[in-house]
């Protein structure tokens, strides 16, 4: 109800401030249609990483795209209330050219997802083998997709298998295994000396066919078959049920990534950025966090650090950046995870995954991050986007 009232209010202001002539309504310095589109964007897509509303006014043509039908309806209603004359060229995704193939599953060990189509563009995030995706649009061999944690970006078609609803349901209901080693391979035969089919990283999910001779025969989403050693995987349902995000388990998981290189947009054992690291640690313990540091800072419970570090527990997230100043809110740009101990240590991905300290006398003291520290958060199952022990992510 608040959204509707706000939009009508914004539209009313525009109508009141302009001539009652429909033609005059679009002749102001900032077109009324653009003002309304911007107000819709602020309400429905304040974070463009997880919601798409790319709509602008070009003369009297309102053009763009959105993945939210409700935002398009709100835009249309607000334009009508404001009596704006316009031509509607806004498409609601998914694009009709995709026909019925509106789902996809990642079919390589790690798929890179970029802010724009093309290998030269910035990497936004990654998705591991078996991750389900929503598909919105195709452009020259690249697909605009959305991950289960709502992140939107472009990935190359060769790294995913697009599916219609029926095929996706078959994949979704197939028994699964999850790869639980940092790195490994699938083979053409039940023999580690045989040809590799694909590399694999922790968190990769595959359909399982049968077990024999110390290997599982598995199927990739794109139909390729392979064999993986039994000791490298777990049945997905058993793995999910065994996840316990205790302090000890979070610390143990974090240290398994020690030395993994920093990679902007990385969320796997091939490379992690700061929030990709904390997200991977929590994923290994059954909880799915939001993707970026600024998003992770919005979940969980605040931990009081005004008088020191004594209230922190191993596994708490530490956030860094620019403190609030001159009425501007704090800006989070980095995240790490508290370890504790006599040297007040924390672990972070900064050039590589490494253990740092807030103790100025320690050899691993990180004075830069110490001075940029903003706040700490404690994450529980109710704070996560998904709890894999009670809800399937795949």
List the topology elements.
Blueprint: H1 2-17, H2 32-44, E1 53-58, E2 61-66, H3 69-81, E3 87-92, E4 103-106, E5 110-114, E6 123-128, E7 132-139, E8 142-146, E9 152-156, E10 160-163, H4 165-173, E11 176-179, E12 183-187, E13 196-201, E14 205-212, E15 215-219, E16 225-229, E17 233-235, H5 236-242, H6 247-255, E18 267-268, E19 271-272, H7 274-283, E20 287-288, H8 293-296, E21 301-303, E22 317-322, E23 331-340, E24 345-350, E25 352-357, H9 367-372, E26 373-378, E27 386-387
Parallel strand pairs: 2-3
Antiparallel strand pairs: 1-2, 4-7, 4-10, 5-6, 7-8, 8-9, 11-14, 11-17, 12-13, 14-15, 15-16, 18-19, 20-27, 21-26, 22-23, 22-26, 23-24, 24-25
Helix pairs in contact: 1-2, 1-3, 2-3, 6-7
Structure write-up:
It is a single chain. This protein has 394 residues and is an alpha+beta fold. The protein has 4 domains: 2-92, no CATH class; 98-171, SH3 Domains (SH3 type barrels, Roll); 174-241, SH3 type barrels (Roll); 247-387, endopeptidase domain like (from Nostoc punctiforme) (endopeptidase fold (from Nostoc punctiforme)), CATH 3.90.1720.10. It is 22% helix and 35% strand. It contains 9 helices and 27 strands. The strands form 8 sheets. The protein has a 6-stranded antiparallel sheet. It has a 5-stranded antiparallel sheet with strand order 9-8-7-4-10. Strands 16-15-14-11-17 form a 5-stranded antiparallel sheet. Strand 7 (132-139) and strand 8 (142-146) form a beta hairpin. Helix 1 (2-17) runs parallel beside helix 3 (69-81) and helix 2 runs antiparallel to helix 3. It is flat, with a radius of gyration of 24 Å. It starts with a helix and ends in a 7-residue tail after the last strand.
